[in-house]
Write a structure and sequence with these properties.
Layout: H1 17-33, H2 40-59, H3 68-78, H4 87-90, H5 93-101, H6 108-118
Length: about 130
């Protein structure tokens, strides 16, 4: 279904993946146009954004996201590293152990180091 084919004259929630993809495509198109505030295009953009967010909340709940520990483990593997390699970035072996045991969340300095050395976006490392 093409974005132009979405007819929301009678508003409804996004029913399936095809409607979701069409709404996302329409949002992208509207963002490229940079609509003026309070314009019809801006209102449509806001409306579609609410629908997309509701669809994502239902079909991709945040509870399904991997933990920061799982993300770090994955990126270590991708870089051919092991947990012991993190000691120099996280402040020692005990800090690495506390992080992986869930005893201590990462500090902002540690998050910045992981972003710099492993390329992990900071938002994925914040405690949920």
């Amino acid at each position: 279904m093409m974005a132009e084919q979405l007819d929301f004259t009678k508003p409804h929630v996004l029913r399936d993946e095809a409607e979701y993809q069409a709404a996302v495509a329409e949002i992208d198109r509207l963002l490229d146009e940079e609509p003026e505030p309070n314009s019809e295009a801006c209102d449509r953009l806001e409306f579609l954004s609410v629908l997309v967010q509701a669809y994502e909340d239902t079909h991709n709940p945040l509870d399904d996201l991997p933990t920061p520990q799982a993300i770090v483990d994955f990126m270590l593997e991708q870089h051919g590293l092991v947990r012991a390699d993190l000691a120099k970035w996280l402040g020692g072996k005990s800090r690495v152990s506390e992080f992986f045991q869930g005893i201590r969340p990462l500090s902002l300095k540690q998050i910045a180091a992981l972003r710099e050395h492993l390329g992990i976006p900071a938002d994925l490392l914040l405690v949920k």
